[in-house]
Amino acid sequence: MVGRERELRSWRTDGRLALAGGMVCVCLAGAGCSGPGQGASVEGAGGGDPVAVLHRAADRLVAAGSAKTRTAMQMASGGTRVTIRGEGVYDFGERLGQLKVRLPQDPAGSSEHRPITELLAPGALFMKNRGAGVPDDKWVRVETDSLSDGNLVTGGATDPFAAAEVLRGTRTATFVGRTELAGVEVRHYRGTADLARAARGASEGNRKALAAAAEGFATAEVPFDAYLDDEGRVRKVRHRFSFSNGREDGTGTVDVASTTLLYDFGAAVRVRLPEDQDIYAGKIAAGPGDPGEPGEPDGGTGGAVDGKN
Q1: Using alpha carbons only, how large is the chain's radius of gyration in Å?
Q2: 171-180 — which CB contacts under 8 Å span 24+ positions?
């Protein structure tokens, strides 16, 4: 995958998804070929059984092809609360995405960190402007299944497809009601997902990462609020994660609320993964979402991440 360049251009034509180079019909085993197809509405005010609807949500995104995304990750620990924001695009078919992630201002509010460019790929996260000591023209690569949180938190933004695949682990859910989100009618669901169960049902690219998160978080149960449109696609999902940073002063638990917004389905996505020679091979401090005191550029852990692994 290194050095590859992918571009997806899609649009709606008579309720079907047209892709450059021909028509593609997606029918995933997890959703079943008898379910509502792309461009069809999910039946009923609540779209059917909430658990079943949420289990299919990630497959609906694959059928949609791509989307623009905005992310927000709020961390709270020891009375400190910070928010990291991101914006970009994601190709659900290729599992490739690009985000610009902005760290919070310094406490005085007088200076800003440079935005971090993140490239998302199956099993890997690439970051530029990642930390002190990394040359400006180099990328840092992290193997996501080696992270105790499966990269649901480490990068400061949850991979949009991983966020949807967490819903495959939904154990309980209720239909809250219909509402409007950015001018789109959506169905609001509230429930709890189990990360171990999500890992078993996830795509190959997310299976190991979600399994690592199931072991690494304080609890494998993830409360969520999900907003799906009438085609069953995720428009917004908010997860609440909790993990321990090993402190002994009573501030050892970090609570994280990760929100992912998806819109403009069918947007063009162009992601070029870095060549081997462009990847930094040294050691760097832990990242913006790594366990540690939120708000510190190095996560406050004093840990290290291998630029190659």
Answers
A1: 19
A2: 171/51, 171/197, 172/51, 173/50, 173/51, 173/54, 174/50, 175/45, 175/46, 175/47, 175/50, 176/225, 178/45, 179/227
173 pLDDT exceeds 90? yes
Length reported for the chain: 309
* Residue 2 pLDDT exceeds 80: no
Number of neighbours of residue 290 by Cβ within 10 angstroms: 24
Averaging pLDDT over each range in 35-49, 72-86, 114-128, 164-178, which range is the top one? 164-178
For residue 159, what pLDDT is reported? Answer: 95
Number of CB atoms found within 10 A of residue 72's CB: 18
Identify the band that residue 46 occupies on the pLDDT scale cut at 50, 70 and 90.
low
**Looking at per-residue confidence, does 205 or 42 come out higher?**
205
Burial classification of residue 65, based on how many CB atoms lie within 10 Å of its CB (0-12 exposed, 13-18 middle, 19 or more buried)? buried
